[in-house]
Design goal:
single chain; 159 residues; mainly beta; Immunoglobulin-like; five-stranded antiparallel beta sheet; rod-shaped
């Protein structure tokens, strides 16, 4: 087990630095691959576009006596359109309650996990908001709305 861990750590730089090659076939179609082909060149890819959204504190008052605050602590996005959202409440989430996360006014998650993974988010401006609801779906507290822009790189454009 120990050797497997050491081997995987040593192999990481190999995968992290993998090159992407591009070439055109006889019909003028551009192709991309991770292995060099005849007449291929190294593709120039844009830099990783990961970013963090600033932490905010909810200013909305709770409609109950349980929760004092609900925050979207961070949201981290990458170039593939994946977003990880971290939500924090004070006090911690009660067993009979759940978190609802909305993206652009549509509920995209309901559950107890405070770290939520969303994938394949479209390019453009989006709004996130978290809520804690009870078993009857009554909103107990809401976070502020967080606006972020998803930027997904484009590596090929028509000429």
């Amino acid at each position: 087990m120990r050797y497997l861990l050491i081997l995987s750590i040593l192999m990481f730089p190999v995968f992290a630095g993998a090159e992407i090659y591009q070439w055109q076939d006889n019909n003028g179609v551009t192709h991309f691959s991770d292995t060099p082909q005849k007449n291929s060149t190294i593709a120039k890819l844009p830099a990783d576009q990961s970013y963090r959204v600033a932490t905010t504190i909810s200013k909305e008052k709770a409609t109950n006596n349980i929760y004092q605050k609900l925050q979207i602590m961070s949201s981290v996005a990458n170039e593939k359109g994946d977003v990880t959202v971290k939500v924090k409440s004070a006090p911690s989430l009660q067993k009979s309650n759940k978190i609802k996360l909305s993206l652009d006014e549509k509920v995209v998650y309901e559950g107890e996990d405070a770290s939520i993974f969303l994938n394949n988010i479209d390019r453009g401006e989006h709004v996130l908001q978290a809520q804690i609801v009870d078993v009857d779906d009554n909103v107990l507290i809401s976070s502020d709305k967080i606006t972020f822009n998803m930027q997904r790189p484009k590596i090929h454009s028509k000429k």
